[in-house]
Amino acid sequence: MGTDRLVLVWADGTPHRETRVDGRPMGSKRTLHSVVGSTGPQRRDLEARRRIFASTLALLEERGYAGMTIEQVATEARVGKATLYRSWPNKAALVLDAVRSRLKEVPTEETGNSREELLAVTQEAMASFFGAPQVQAVLPALVADTARNPELRRRLREEVIEPRKARSRTVLERAIGRGDLPADTDPDLVLEMWAGAMLFRSLFYDGKYDAEALERLVDAAIASPPRSPRDPAPLEEPAPQT
């Protein structure tokens, strides 16, 4: 018999690939989005990972990043500590994978309509994340702990935020290339404005943007997008004194 295999689709949009189920780490991107034809050991592995991620997020909400431990996750998820450490070398890696497991893929498909593509980014990649009940529950703890833990903040930025931001940026740059946005539009600032507005509502108003509000966000960016800073004019030499 050959080695059991899982067919995985990563939540961050990386291509499908087959991964051996032999007890070894599954790589830096372990977030299972779907599994095809999983039975027996594969099914148990998938169910264990779902319990692990659910327990991780529940403990993060209840105790915060600093207050939770790998041992607590193992107890809540009904798995051995060795199972966790085999796939996640530390707590930060586990928490980031658990967060990734709740993220939808950033849509980058080209439709020929810039407004539709930008709406897809705000609806699928941003509003669905900030407005998801489980994400809303853990955001306050995660935000608080990143302020106290520079390493967690760095890893969250580099491993979760920046890859998704890069995919979203391609959609904005495509709109710029079509002439639907000015050539000097600042894509990063557009994305940060959208994310900031949604994060603010999620943290302080316990809600999410509906379809009509998202359309207004996108239309505002199209009508008057933030621009990249221009190089300041060179200083003129003072006139000689006579």
Automatic annotation (TrEMBL):
Cross-referenced InterPro entries: Homeodomain-like_sf, HTH-type_TetR-like_transc_reg, HTH_TetR, Tet_transcr_reg_TetR-rel_C_sf, TetR_C
UniProt entry tagged with the keyword Lyase: no
Record protein name field: TetR/AcrR family transcriptional regulator
Pfam family, one: TetR_C_11
Gene Ontology molecular function terms on file: DNA-binding transcription factor activity; transcription cis-regulatory region binding
Limits of the HTH tetR-type domain: 46-106
Keywords, comma-separated and alphabetical: DNA-binding, Transcription, Transcription regulation
Taxonomic source organism: Streptomyces palmae
Region (Disordered): 19-41, 222-242
Composition bias, Pro residues: 231-242
Residue ranges of DNA binding: 69-88
Domain of life: Bacteria
